[in-house]
Known about the structure:
Elements lengths: L1 E3 L7 H28 L2 H27 L14 H30 L7 H22 L7 H30 L3 H29 L9 H9 L4 E11 L5 E9 L1 H5 L3 H16 L3 E8 L2 H7 L1
Helix pairs in contact: 1-2, 1-4, 2-3, 2-5, 2-6, 3-5, 3-6, 4-5, 5-6
Amino acid sequence: xxxxxxxxxxxxxxxxxxxxxxxxxxxxxxxxxxxxxxxxxxxxxxxxxxxxxxxxxxxxxxxxxxxxxxxxxxxxxxxxxxxxxxxxxxxxxxxxxxxxxxxxxxxxxxxxxxxxxxxxxxxxxxxxxxxxxxxxxxxxxxxxxxxxxxxxxxxxxxxxxxxxxxxxxxxxxxxxxxxxxxxxxxxxxxxxxxxxxxxxxxxxxxxxxxxxxxxxxxxxxxxxxxxxxxxxxxxxxxxxxxxxxxxxxxxxxxxxxxxxxxxxxxxxxxxxxxxxxxxxxxxxxxxxxxxxxxxxxxxxxxx
Length: 303
């Protein structure tokens, strides 16, 4: 006995936003690569590399979103919603690899004391273009990222690049005003340091989903209390809460009810109350309940 209503978090709107963000990111990435070559800026090149990973992450997110929209079948009864989680996993790994590469390059430049001439003017103009483009991409993804883990992964990538572009702007201004070239490498290290916590947080969430942990912010005891407050319900056991991906929690439980209520054919009414309670108070749209009379749990345990 269950109810399943599609969450709609992997619809055409998400794919359209991802596609637009991908187009913006790809164009700015090319501009930043050209700007990095012309200016000699490591920070700008790091930002361009981050834009490249942003583009790759958006491609992964877009493909995962399309795959996740495929309907369920007898082989995959929940559909392909977990494709979003694997997309987010790849995004997190890309972020960590990027941060390590940027940090190594920056440390090498600082330790060697390379006197690399950096053209601050070109660096500044390209960084401003990147900053504006990332701001637009973040605005496009801001609403969808609250409901989809996969879109959130892409959103975090763009956020990191927005901050990185801001840091590059600061370094360019410092170089223009003082001529102090190490500011470029130092900003590269700062960019790498800002990437790691977001990547770790995303990977932690992926592990939580794949480990079928209770979704963050959802408390099993609170759910128990709401179920026990339902008329004709005496007890609840075998409670399980997990999520297929961000925004798609799943719930199952065995509920002990009055035998008289079952005999009088009120099981449908009780089920509707239970499912309505979970949907209204805990945003659980896929819930499965096994209604059983008193003594049934002891029978199962004995068997």
